[in-house]
Write a structure and sequence with these properties.
- Helices cover about 0% and strands about 45% of the residues.
- With about 230 residues, the protein is an all-beta fold.
- The strands form four sheets. The protein has a five-stranded mixed sheet, with no helix packed on it. The protein has a four-stranded antiparallel sheet with strand order 12-2-14-15, with no helix packed on it. The chain has a four-stranded mixed sheet with strand order 4-3-6-9, with no helix packed on it.
- A hairpin with a 2-residue loop joins strand 3 and strand 4.
- The radius of gyration is 18 Å and the shape is globular.
- The N and C termini lie far apart (about 40 Å).
């Protein structure tokens, strides 16, 4: 039985909020794309997934409550999360999704892609979160889900090896992906003490513990070290 299907009581919510900024200060590691683009993808420009502002704010970091929530089940959103294959890249590159929620993958290119999710565990099979589906038709879609929580599940295209996406799969709604300002906000929390974790594909992980009271907003800084 998957972690997402274990019968428990309703997950606790509240009126507390944790906000903050994810930052990195130091020399930005050199970036090299895995391979040069293929002719069918045109003259695309390699994009470094590490985007750090002049003030050190980090975009595309996945932030979530790692520890501190009481056991409980939260209703799954009825709408799917969209992952698009467009201009020979995955869009978005980093996203959050609930364990068991529908992932809708679309191929917007007139190019053969495949979507290959590499879950952890279970040897070469990659565990219950792994799947591999060919998508040869422009406009075609497939639906899948990730049964088990995992941060992250790596997603790639075996035809075009530079195509990458990363899913933060969690069992609760308290997660966010930072924008160019590095900011995040996790609302609807019950009062308590939590461990927040930020994950980034090039910077790794960093975490902080924060205590928030009822009806309060608490600020926390999450900083990656060089």
């Amino acid at each position: 039985m998957s972690a997402a299907s274990v019968a428990r009581g309703p997950g606790a919510t509240g009126s507390s909020r944790i906000t903050g900024v994810v930052s990195f200060h130091g020399p930005v590691p050199a970036f090299r794309e895995p391979v040069a683009p293929f002719p069918e993808c045109g003259q695309r420009t390699p994009q470094d997934p590490l985007r750090v502002s002049a003030a050190g704010q980090v975009a595309n970091a996945f932030v979530y409550v790692r520890d501190g929530l009481a056991p409980g089940d939260y209703p799954l959103p009825p709408e799917p999360v969209l992952l698009d294959q467009k201009a020979c890249d995955y869009q978005p590159r980093v996203f959050g999704i609930r364990a068991g929620q529908t992932l809708l993958v679309r191929n917007s290119d007139n190019v053969l892609h495949n979507v290959h999710a590499r879950g952890a565990g279970a040897g070469l099979a990659g565990g219950p979160d792994a799947f591999n589906v060919a998508m040869p038709v422009q406009g075609g879609t497939v639906k899948r889900n990730f049964p088990e929580p995992q941060v992250p599940v790596a997603i790639g295209c075996d035809v075009h090896p530079w195509m990458r996406a990363f899913a933060g799969v969690v069992t609760h709604p308290f997660f966010a992906v930072t924008g160019d300002d590095g900011a995040f906000s996790l609302g609807g929390l019950p009062a308590g003490t939590y461990t927040l974790e930020a994950w980034h594909e090039r910077l790794g992980r960093t975490s902080a513990q924060v205590t928030v009271g009822a009806d309060q907003t608490q600020l926390v800084q999450l900083e990656f070290k060089p």
